[in-house]
Write a structure and sequence with these properties.
By secondary structure, the protein is an alpha/beta fold. The chain contains twelve helices and 21 strands. Strands 4-3-5-6-7-8-9-14-13 form a nine-stranded mixed sheet, sandwiched between helices. Strands 10-11-12-15 form a four-stranded antiparallel sheet. The longest helix is centred in the N-terminal third of the chain and has 22 residues. It binds 5'-O-[hydroxy(phenylacetyl)phosphoryl]adenosine.
Amino acid sequence: MVDKLIWNPKAESMLPKERELLQLERLQHIVKYAYENVPYYKKSFDAAKVKPSDIKSLKDITKLPYTSKDDLRSAYPFGMFAVPHEEILEIHTSSGTTGRPVVVGYTASDIELWGEVMARALSMAGTTKADWVQNAYGYGLFTGGLGVHYGARKIGANIIPISAGNTKRQLEIMRDFGTTVLTCTPSYTLYLAEVAAEEGIDLKKCKLKAGVFGAEMWTETMRDEIEKRLHLTALNIYGLTEIIGPGVAQECIEKTGLHLQEDHFYPEIITPDTLLPVAEGHKGELVLTTLTREGTPMIRFRTKDITGLRHGVCKCGRSTVKMDRITGRSDDMMKIRGVIVFPSQIEKALLEIPGIEPHYKIIITRPNQLDELEVHVETSKKLFSDEVRHIEEIKNNIESHIERAIGIRIKVTLVEPKSIQRSEGKAKRVFDMRNLK
Ligand code: DLL
């Protein structure tokens, strides 16, 4: 049973008018602070001919220039820092798979803020002092491990700081210590369930009640799969290194969107092409401004994540704006023969088919100047040992199902159970071979 807990009712259930006043006060402060302490912002505001004193209402935020990941990379390593190094307590970096990593710094007050938003997030999953939180996000420069750690510590829960990996040990600890809250990437949960079955560990008999899963894209169908296999309530957590790490937004047990901690992070949704705001409820790219960060304040950071926002009071009692599940990134959008396709559409379509395992990879190639998309998908053991004719039928069925979902026919290859590499952290599912040529 997941309790309905609100960690900070004053902040999370505030009247919208009251919150807007607080946001404006904080926005005016952070814009002036960034302008005066980070040369990058002085330069970019001056170039856009905007001064901190021009921010008279929340809408005036649109006068400010955007900040992109490339801007942050150019400032490598410490160009975005607003305080001297003596005041920085901790450093984190984005994974930096392409190019230089983004470096962010946390002052004592930023660490306090991180603990606060993460305590709010874990409370949405019913976490109390009485819980055992098995934290299987990686500790280190990645923000997942320490972010959850600070939140669980603030709540006073028992933290099992196991970090990512060591799957057999994770399961033994889960069973022997009586873990109640599991935190890791959604893809890792499926691997845990798979190894549990091999090791004869009955997850039904474990004490798991909730999971706080994020750091990568996942779908509603994946949630159903995880809940069925791990016997817990699976909730979505969102965040990014540039803003704070995990804790920017989190789902409550109503599962109707992620509450965004908007007294600390101010959200906007824009159309990536025109950079203009979209209407309430419509999807676009999320842009975030940190209202209270001291170490590395971010003004209008373009996250590239695609989502929509909805205002209103939730059944849980929180009044914070709700963000839809992320359906893709404006930069992982695939354009196949002129059609825009997001990996999440493929995942959703795949998992609707019985006998298909939630393990897949998407491969993009360009054999004759034309993009080709191929999906490798694992089948269940039973299905794989079936007659060739039957397998061919299933393959055609999947191809047609995906075609109905995305509008074009792509190639599907059924592969042996367990042949697709499992991940302990963020799963890599899209392989764009076009860049390798
Ligand atoms: O992934 C922070 C985090 C740790 C979030 C643990 C949740 C749990 P980065 O490594 O900087 O930070 O990656 C940030 O991951 O811009 C999204 O594209 C993606 N992402 C994060 N959470 C979700 C989610 C952490 N719930 C990038 N759904 C973001 C979809 C997510 N994508």
